[in-house]
């Protein structure tokens, strides 16, 4: 990227669009090319040996790295404020590659009790099969975190905002306590993207993303990212990606995520603005029992959310007065808003966590961890706001008829 004439750091959107690529390096092509190759030729036998020993920079095999992936990694590291990044095939691939690299039998992990269902299953049902102890706690209550930390704790893992009920966790406070115990703080920041939250700035050691969501932004790809110190990312690439998971991101999906980054800042502004309006509608409607949205003054962690997040996000969680039956009726009544899991798409999506994304939790675990059977999660898309308001309002009104 060419230096700007003011000698000032380039802005977020400028880096998302230009960083790491000069059209002149690729025959003047404005858009970076997709490198569709699985293997790479060596200049000589000696050069190949040097690459394998790590004495020479370059590419060896597509499972480890590809130039299209490398550009994505450079950009996301810059946007998150990290030294380096690793692109992999999915968000779960990012988490698994990180965990399998940094943990061994006998280690302990402390997790927040409210996280994505598949992450919860990997940690509490997967890792524990291999001699790793996992302790779920309520990280909004720091005393429960402190009580769970031991000399064997290697990682503290949490989401903020949390999936699906949008609880916000104090990144700086958790990181401080993790570090005091000799552990790393790992944050899943998928619900925000680096456009509105950068956990490394608050003391986190590593950040993971499902790039399937806001980073890609169009519901047409799977991808994951890990951002953190260069040496740790190198270790995760060499061990977690290359040997343990093989969760390689395809060059085409790396290209699509790069394309998504170009509009990320603009899209997040629209997601958040529309979500704020729909949250106000929900909060004022008599059919709604409670709304959880970081942008509402009634949100229990409103001040913390404003401190950590530049915008309140594009997701809303709410419960209806009629419980599960009312939630089912509402979702079936909607005409524009789509019944589907995932989030961060251009389309507005609605789902029922207890029977869908968080069905890996037992009923007892859901009750204990704040995921009620009546909870509904809304991912607000990019449609015309009036159309979303009209669709949600008519579905809510039908519950009172």
TrEMBL record:
GO terms for molecular function: methionine gamma-lyase activity; pyridoxal phosphate binding. The modification N6-(pyridoxal phosphate)lysine is found at residue 213. CDD domains: CGS_like. Keywords: Lyase, Pyridoxal phosphate. It catalyses: L-methionine + H2O = methanethiol + 2-oxobutanoate + NH4(+). Gene3D superfamilies: Aspartate Aminotransferase, domain 1, Type I PLP-dependent aspartate aminotransferase-like (Major domain). GO terms for biological process: methionine biosynthetic process; transsulfuration. This is L-methionine gamma-lyase. It comes from Hypericibacter adhaerens.
């Amino acid at each position: 990227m060419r230096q700007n004439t003011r000698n000032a750091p380039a802005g977020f959107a400028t880096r998302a669009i230009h960083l790491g690529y000069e059209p002149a390096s690729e025959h003047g092509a404005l858009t970076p090319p997709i490198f569709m190759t699985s293997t790479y030729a060596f200049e000589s036998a000696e050069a190949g040996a040097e690459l394998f020993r790590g004495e020479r920079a370059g590419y060896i095999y597509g499972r480890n790295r590809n130039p299209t992936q490398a550009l994505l990694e450079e950009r996301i590291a810059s946007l998150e404020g990290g030294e380096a990044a690793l692109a992999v095939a999915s968000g779960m691939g990012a988490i698994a590659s990180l965990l399998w690299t940094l943990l061994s039998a006998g280690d302990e992990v402390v997790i927040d009790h409210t996280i994505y269902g598949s992450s919860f299953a990997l940690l509490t049902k997967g890792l524990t099969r291999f001699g790793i102890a996992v302790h779920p706690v309520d990280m909004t209550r720091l005393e429960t975190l402190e009580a769970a930390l031991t000399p064997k704790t290697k990682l503290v893992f949490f989401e903020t905002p949390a999936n699906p009920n949008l609880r916000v966790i104090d990144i700086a406070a958790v990181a401080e306590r993790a570090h005091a115990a000799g552990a790393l703080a790992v944050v899943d920041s998928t619900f925000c993207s680096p456009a509105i939250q950068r956990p490394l700035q608050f003391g986190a050691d590593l950040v993971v993303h499902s790039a399937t969501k806001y980073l890609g932004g169009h519901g047409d790809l799977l991808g994951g990212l890990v951002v953190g110190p260069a040496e740790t990312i190198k270790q995760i690439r060499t061990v977690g990606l290359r040997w343990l998971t093989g969760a390689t991101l395809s060059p085409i999906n790396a290209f699509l995520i790069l394309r998504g980054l170009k509009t990320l800042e603009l899209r997040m502004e629209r997601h958040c603005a529309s979500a704020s309006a729909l949250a106000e509608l929900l909060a004022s409607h008599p059919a709604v029992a409670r709304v959880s949205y970081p942008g509402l003054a009634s949100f229990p962690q409103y001040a913390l959310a404003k401190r950590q997040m530049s915008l309140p996000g594009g997701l809303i969680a709410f419960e209806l007065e009629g419980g599960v039956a009312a939630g089912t009726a509402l979702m079936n009544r909607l005409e524009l808003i789509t019944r589907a899991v995932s989030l961060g798409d251009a389309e507005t999506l609605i789902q029922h966590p207890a029977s869908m994304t968080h069905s890996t939790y037992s009923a007892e675990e859901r009750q204990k961890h704040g995921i009620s059977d009546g909870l509904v999660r809304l991912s607000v898309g990019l449609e015309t706001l009036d159309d979303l308001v009209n669709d949600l309002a008519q579905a809510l009104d039908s519950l009172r008829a």
